[in-house]
Amino acid sequence: MKYLKYSMHTKFFLLLSLVVGTLCNAQNNAKSKKAPNLLIIIADQWRGQALGFEGKEPVMTPYLDQYIKESLVLDQMVSNYPVCSPARAMLMTGQYPIKNQVYSNVNSSSAPFGVELQKDAICWSDVLKKNGYFNGYIGKWHLDSPYKPYIPTSNNIGKVAWNEWTSPDRRHGFDYWYGYGTYDEHDKPMYWDTNDKRDDFKYVNQWGPIHEADKALAYFKNEDGKIRKSDAPFSLVVSMNPPHSGYQTVPQKYYNLYKDIPLENLIKDPNIPAEGTEMGDQYRKDIRYYYANITGVDEQIGRILDGLKDSKLDDNTIVMIMADHGNCLGKHSEISKNNIFEESLRIPFIIRWKNHITPRKDNEFLGSIPDIYPTLLDLMGLKNEIPKNIDGKSYAQYYLNGKGEKPTEQYILGAIVSDNVKINTGFRGIRTADYKLAFVRKKGHGEFVLYDLKADPFELTNIYKPDLPIVKKLEPVLKQWLKKTGDGFIID
Questions:
Q1: Is 172 in contact with 144 (CB distance < 8 Å)?
Q2: How do the domains of the chain map onto residue ranges?
Q3: Which of 136, 467, 61, 10 is nearest to 297 (CA)?
Q4: CATH class of the domain defined by 422-484
Q5: In this structure, what DSSP letter does residue 481 have?
Q6: What confidence tier does 95 reach under pLDDT thresholds 50, 70, 90?
Q7: 299-325: per-residue pLDDT in tens?
Q8: Cα gap 25→242, rounded to integer Å
Q9: Over the stretch 128-146, which tens digit does the pLDDT of each residue have?
Q10: Three-class SS state of 441
């Protein structure tokens, strides 16, 4: 009898333990499957070579140098169309510029031809909104065409108007809005708040990245639930304008870090034009300021990410840090971007998702901006919500552990004249791990350019010959891509 009672007692506790264990496992699984938040930080005109941890340029990025130890770094990520509006539209739509209609910068010159983010585009933010997310946007947008009467800002009073308010029906699922179209006075930026009307913009007497970091921290803290829905997963984009020109508006404390460094220590790369040339002198004038802006942005990124952690949100937030495009700054006699060179194309790309993405530095993955959209949605458990008409492809598995499929090439385009997308303007190209082949058309004249990226990383020598095996391999692939994307560019 005692034995029987003991057995029943034991069975009861075994059953109770089993039930409790099942409930705990269910709770743990529910926690692990909780929808992740998303934080995207974008800097403008930050070339991928200008990162301290890369060791290629004498620039200081102490926060990111530490943060990459917890992150995946894709060294070979490119901006497929290295200009503000096309790059941002590719990120938002997962489509190349010919399809999404943002094939040049958005301004009053391109506006008559419909060059802007289309109202009916399905952006990743629209998908998140549909799936219960609260979305926030802070900073530069540059995807809506200016219209008359133009906003009376300093970049709207010349021959070309640039800046415009984004009306609520054009915000693509972003609930919280603290942004502007495009405006380059970084030490006195201007913004529209969520409920502001078109004429209600305000100026701020603070360096843009500092102010935007403050706004991001407030978004995380969400005091009294006044900024976002506390019980909903969120996304937030923080889009900083520096290190875009004008470079000299950077706070003095960042410039002081570089002012006493001998100039010869900052101009060692062989693709910098000689002193006494227009672009060589411009490079020497701007380089300290450019680096100072990068260091300043690095510090503000650090503030944002520390704030995410302090708010106990970092464990379940996918953090992505990138730029829209790079900047030659005078290298190759190119003043800025919108060209085929590595300094224009290569961008920083850092992504972290604690306990999901294996931290590592990857120098092989050939990343493209249109692929980011489906990859993020796939990582976030929304693979079935990815629209069918995007050009990008998900590489979520590779992001997680490096074992999935990876691309074998990247496609590049740019410098398209906005009056007619079918006109043969600009460049189209294909980039692999070893080579870059492009057809560049200027003033009606076109020519092929081929660089061996391993033997000639500074792209000093065009080695193109039509009978080279690599040309015969890559040229048909490039032409096939043009046909696939509906690009009327003709290679002749």
A1: no
A2: 34-408, 422-484
A3: 61
A4: alpha beta
A5: H
A6: very high
A7: 999 999 999 999 999 999 999 999 999
A8: 47
A9: 999 999 999 999 999 999 9
A10: strand
